[in-house]
Design goal:
Blueprint: H1 48-59, E1 75-78, E2 81-91, E3 95-102, E4 107-113, H2 124-140, E5 150-154, E6 158-162, E7 166-168, H3 180-193, E8 207-210, E9 215-217, H4 233-260, H5 266-271, H6 277-299
Antiparallel strand pairs: 1-2, 2-3, 3-4, 4-6, 5-6, 7-8, 8-9
Helix pairs in contact: 3-4
Amino acid sequence: MASSSGSRAARRPGSGAGRGIHRSPTAVGRTVLDPAAWLAYDAPRTGGATDRAMARKEQGRVPNRILRGKMPRASFDLGGRTYRLEKTLKQDFFAATGRYVSDDGRRVCLKHYHEEPFLGWPLQWAGRLMADREVRHYRLLQDTGGVPRLVGRVGKSAFVHEWVEGHDLLDRAAPPPDDFFDRLEGLVESLHARGMAYVDMNKPDNVLVADDGRPVLIDFQISWAPRPSPWPLGAVKRRLLAMLQEADRFHVGKLKRLYRGDLMTPEQRAASKRPPWFLRIHRVFGAPLRDLRRRVLEWVGAR
């Protein structure tokens, strides 16, 4: 099963000897993958960073040393039910996330943004602002069927949404349905039509394959839905939003190539390897900074 922050990790089917691609005699112009070899295209290989990420998902993403905030609370009350912690999903500098279950078996996910200060700086306002911001993003998309349903707020810096049964793309528990990425593209376009950019589409563990086969997006922490502003600020916001939405579309194509490349034409596969110019620039400058941040966190024991 999967939800807003993770689920059990699964080994990739079809890895190792004997993996192959089988062409159906009835298929014309496209390759049909054997279910045991569905990742034979460009899907991420097991080993290295991918295996480490999956191991962190299975154990819960908790650093060895917590720089700020607390672990998910043991229980909370909401809507006449008491929910108890079933699994810690994630704890980082900004928030703690856990999967909870009520006495009658209802599962939900609670995300609590930290309000504790850091190095003497008061950050209570930041935790509350980030919670309000993410809840607003979820509310904008409640009628799409592509995000978990909001259940309610807990205090001023935490919110609860339903637990979605299924698995995320990183789990690779089964090949996504043939129409999955078409539906994901439609969901992203619906999100864009509401004046939002998802921004985090490059992470396969943010894209769930629900048990009924539909795509579900989770974790809107860094998504952006700017409010209207007068010129010239409004013009700058619209241009930036358009760029972020273009990045969303590119990453949907990239995920499709990684996980169901058999459904793409050669032209589509080639296009999915050509990022927009601003993403290329970001990779040049952002990757070294990301690696430096990772090394610092590992050095202080916070990763």
